Amino acid sequence: MNNEELTSRYKFIDRKMKTEFLENGVELKSLITDILFNEIIVAKDKSGASLIFQPYTGEVAEIIGKYDSYQEAMNAYLSNYYSLSKEKVLTATLKKHVAGELERMSAKLNNLKSRIEKGSREKEYANYGNLLLMNISALKKGLDKIEAKDMEGNNVTIKLDPKLSPQKNIDRYFEKAKSEKIEYEKSIELYNELKNKYDILKELDEKLNKELTLEELQTIEKQLGIKKKMEMQDKSRPNFRHFIIDGKYNVYVGKDSKNNDELTLRFAKQNDYWFHARSVSGSHVVLRTDNPKEVVPKSVLKKAASIAAFYSKAKTAGLAPVSYTFKKYVVKKKGMEPGKVALLKEEVLLVKPEIPPGCEVVD
After folding, report:
1. Where is the NFACT RNA-binding domain (predicted)?
2. 218 and 108 belong to one structural domain
3. Count of the separate structural domains present in the chain
């Protein structure tokens, strides 16, 4: 029986296996003859990455089995051959996934660490608010700064927004203090959570450099949730532009009128924030709030508003007004065209149209 007859009889011997035999100068007929008259083993070679199927006296990494007939040996070889191929493919997939996640997490950790090392400006902003309150009689609309003495008698220059009233300038600094406190605490919390995940992933990365069984690899795959993530992405991936602000807040952007309706009317939840550039056409933008009780920092709202302005006809303006409200205050009245909605309540932010720093593009 020649090589062609043997491979024709055993359909499981594919082109790759035949190539391996030829590259190693192995004649199948000669190999089978050896098997008939010598001890037959199926084993992994010294590297542990390839299988040996022949009478063999050299060093092996692991003997899978010894057999009395070539039929039994062939069955064992084929079974382990395809299992080993699965191991190679799965190992490569896991290594690629882990490397990508480690790179992504490392960048986020560096950004968060930099933010934490700068410290919180909560006290500074609160102090400005208190000083302005103490000097409210000296404030008037149109001023862009004021000189005041702090509790130690030192002169302090405080910037003002000339468009705002004295009380609103005071409120602005107290709001900044509140947002700074929330943002700083969230940065520390997120850093600790992410560092823990990073350390676990680093251990898995080191583990993947060792020889693992298919079962061990499948356990790691399950631990990483790769299959589940891929299935969920295929089934429920929203067809919108997707950004992540400050490594935490998910923002979704409509692509056209019908997509805007899909985003606002079906995808957005009642307590999500909704944004749209004022008085011009543009994309609907939704900031997801998974926990309605959590206060979203003003800085995050402004970044989401900047994205809304960027995806609008006001994109080239220096500054643009953006309406924002909770999704529950956004309604579509009967007869409205696709993408058109009405707001029951709204607030306005004046922002620069851009994809601001701290925004990661997902899709």
Report:
1. 240-342
2. yes
3. 3
